[in-house]
Write a structure and sequence with these properties.
Keywords: Membrane, Transmembrane, Transmembrane helix
Structural class: mainly alpha
Oligomer: single chain
Number of helices: 3
Shape: elongated
Strand content: under 5%
Number of strands: 0
Length: about 80
């Protein structure tokens, strides 16, 4: 296994193990939602933003994987 591959795997593992560091939310939404003191609503909006951001990446990755499998030459 090459060093580059090990670094990539390590980076992905760190992202999965530290989900609080990769939370996504725009600054304006965060300021408005947290100013009311109701953090449950702010957390729900934050989770919704993360899901909306992740779904296109998963779909595109699946499409590229499908194309890769179809375009790869047959091995005999």
């Amino acid at each position: 296994m090459s060093l580059r591959k090990i670094v990539h795997i390590g980076f992905v593992l760190i992202l999965f193990l530290l989900p609080d560091m990769v939370g996504a939310q725009c600054a304006m939404c965060r300021a408005v939602l947290e100013s009311n003191g109701n953090t449950d609503v702010a957390e729900g909006v934050n989770n919704g933003i993360v899901y909306l951001m992740a779904i296109p990446y998963v779909l595109v990755a699946g499409l590229f994987y499908f194309i890769y499998k179809k375009m790869r030459p047959k091995q005999s």
